[in-house]
TrEMBL record:
<dbReference type="InterPro" id="IPR041656">
    <property type="entry name" value="TPR_5"/>
</dbReference>
<dbReference type="InterPro" id="IPR011990">
    <property type="entry name" value="TPR-like_helical_dom_sf"/>
</dbReference>
<protein>
    <submittedName>
        <fullName>Tetratricopeptide repeat protein</fullName>
    </submittedName>
</protein>
<feature type="domain" description="Tetratrico peptide repeat group 5">
    <location>
        <begin position="41"/>
        <end position="156"/>
    </location>
</feature>
<dbReference type="Pfam" id="PF12688">
    <property type="entry name" value="TPR_5"/>
</dbReference>
Length: 164
């Protein structure tokens, strides 16, 4: 797949707002026509469309196949985040947490993953971990109080912290 294909995929997503499901499925099918249906990038786009349309139960398998097939680079991390979000929406919070912890701190998408991780932790009944994760992710982007927020996030681990 070349840069023109990547550009067409980007254009597809940038123009998707306001279109109905049938139209989007048809446009994506046209965009993917003639490509290997087992290509991880193809599977990722199919899963992403299902996810976008709220068809989470149909998104899981192609996300998993894309990841198993070796989806490269940042798309792999996008797939991990999107699959985790989908699993969380389907009530599979522990699997979502497991996927989101695979995004390394060095990734451009680490903060994004941490936001979804906080949601999954909250849904899993781990509210202290959720708040800690959210504060830790937020702290570096604050203007004045990053150090304090980081300290409070770490303090949440202390015995009795949840009662404070």
């Amino acid at each position: 797949m070349d840069e023109s294909w990547e550009y067409r995929v980007e254009t597809f997503w940038n123009t998707s707002a306001g279109k109905n499901a049938a139209q989007l499925h048809a446009e994506l099918a046209e965009l993917l026509h003639g490509l290997d249906p087992q290509d991880p990038r193809v599977l990722f786009e199919i899963a992403s469309l299902h996810d976008f349309l709220g068809e989470e139960e149909h998104a899981v398998k192609p996300y998993q196949q894309a990841l198993a097939g070796g989806l490269p680079g940042q798309k792999r991390e996008e797939a991990l985040i999107q699959l985790a979000s989908t699993l969380r929406n389907l009530g599979q919070c522990e699997q979502a947490i497991e996927l989101l912890t695979q995004i390394p701190a060095t990734s451009n998408l680490h903060a994004d993953a941490q936001g979804f991780l906080a949601l999954a932790l909250l849904d899993a009944g781990r509210s202290t971990d959720a708040v800690r994760t959210a504060l830790t992710a937020l702290a570096p982007s604050t203007q004045l109080y990053g150090r304090a927020l980081t300290a409070y996030a770490q303090d949440l681990s202390a015995p009795g912290a949840a009662q404070r």
